[in-house]
Amino acid sequence: MKKDKDKEVLLTPSGLRKLEEELDTLKSLRRREVAQRIKQAREFGDLTENSEYEDAKNEQAFIEGRILTLEKILRNARIIDGESAAAGEVGVGSTVVLKDMEDGGEFEYTIVGSVETDPMDKKISNESPVGRAILGKRKGNVVEISVPAGLIKFKIMDVS
């Protein structure tokens, strides 16, 4: 049984590739670059007042922490492809068109796991208020979502 901190991470195939590429870059390229920076900074002499050395060590710590985080995410990953939801039902991996019932505006979002969330790229988390509210719903359903600004209603116009 997994601990809560090792919870399953939902990823789309493209999200998985993106994380694997980042991990590969960190391990093969960035580690070497920062090691070279540390070596050069050591050559400057006294390490107690050497800001280049301190910066390089901080960057090394960040890179190593990110590598550990990515490895943990990938170890706990479950790949989703949108096929797991019943036909026509909103699930992780689904692309959904929502219509704001108040102003008539339409929005298209892809439901992804929390690791892949990118609102600027129209990807919202299954754990967000909107994501949670529409999971399992179908085209034509109206959902009410409680947000900090109040209650909003969306009609699900399309699910693909």
From the structure above, extract its key features.
single chain; Helix Hairpins; 5-stranded mixed sheet; 160 residues; Chitinase A, domain 3; elongated; 3 helices
Question: Your description of this structure?
Answer:
The chain has 160 residues and is α/β, with parallel strands linked by helices. The protein folds into 2 domains: 76 residues, Orthogonal Bundle (Helix Hairpins); 65 residues, Transcription elongation factor, GreA/GreB, C-terminal domain (Chitinase A, domain 3, Roll). 38% of the residues lie in helices and 24% in strands. The protein is built from 3 helices and 7 strands, in the order E-H-H-E-E-E-E-H-E-E. A 5-stranded mixed beta sheet has the order 5-4-3-7-6. Strands 1-2 form a two-stranded parallel ribbon. A hairpin with a 2-residue loop joins strand 6 and strand 7. Helix 1 packs antiparallel against helix 2. The model has no long low-confidence stretch (mean pLDDT 88).
Structurally, the number of domains stands at 2
Number of strands: 7
* The top level CATH class name of the largest domain: Mainly Alpha
Q: Which strands sit side by side, in order, in the main sheet?
A: 5-4-3-7-6
In DSSP terms (H or I, runs of 4 or more residues), the helix count works out at: 3
SS strand fraction: 15-25%
List low-pLDDT spans: none
Structural classification: alpha/beta
CATH architecture of the largest domain: Orthogonal Bundle
Order of helices and strands: EHHEEEEHEE
| Main sheet record | 5 strands, mixed
Helix content: 25-40%
Q: Outline, from the CA principal axes?
A: elongated
End-to-end separation in angstroms reads: 33 Å
Give average pLDDT, whole number. Answer: 88
Q: Tell me the CATH topology of the largest domain.
A: Helix Hairpins
CATH superfamily of the largest domain: Transcription elongation factor, GreA/GreB, N-terminal domain
